[in-house]
Amino acid sequence: LLFLWSITVSIFGIGGLLGSSGSRYLTVKYGKKKCLLYNDLLMIVAASIMGCSKIAQSFEMILIGRFMCGISAGLCVPLHHQYVGEISPRKLRGFANSTSSFFWSLGKAVGQISGQRELLGSQSLWPMLMASCGLPALIQLVTLPFFPESPPYLLMHKGDQEGCKKAIRQLWGEGHHQAEIDDIMKEKATMKNTKILSVLELMKEQAFRWQLYMIVILTATVQLCGINAV
Known about the structure:
By secondary structure, the chain is mainly α.
């Protein structure tokens, strides 16, 4: 039982690793908006599987659901940050990206509170608690189709300048947005002359050594803040 419980808890992280590893390939091939929509479907399926595990009397369904949730979360974190940043006006881009971290932490807090025995953590309601992760995915699945694809993706990867202008006007309103389009074109020109590094090459590259140290230290110390003990 201890082994099964440990696997159930940790399999989320394994799924997250796989999901985040495939995020770059999927975003380049299909676009950020389409990936987010398919990711919502994956999360809803995972939530349904976990929610029905008690009725089916199958702990294997919890394992499968947790693994799928991990894949979905691993895909969602980089996708969401990129999409929100790219559809935001330049003056609001930093603020928009910081809200992602805020709502990520808020979601964890809501989950911890909802999991109390007095709320959804009771013996009869825990399947509903496990299925609740599908609710935000369902909301995004319904609302996201009304948003355009990321303007930088349309221009840099699809070469669709008219589609990029249309998306910018839909997001930021009518007006002269040539400066933003020029910035995207400059970024596209820079990317052509920039080699995409693998993880091993990134670790060996001295120019990024201190940034890598900072990220590793920050990520490691987050695990020591007590949230896992809670």
